Amino acid sequence: VIIIGQNLPDPELLATLKILAKKDFAILADVVSNQYESSMLKHFDFLVSQANIETLQILEPDFIISLGGPVLSKALKIWLKKQKPKFHFRIQQDETT
Question: CB neighbours of 57 closer than 8 A, spacing ≥ 6?
Answer without folding.
Answer: none
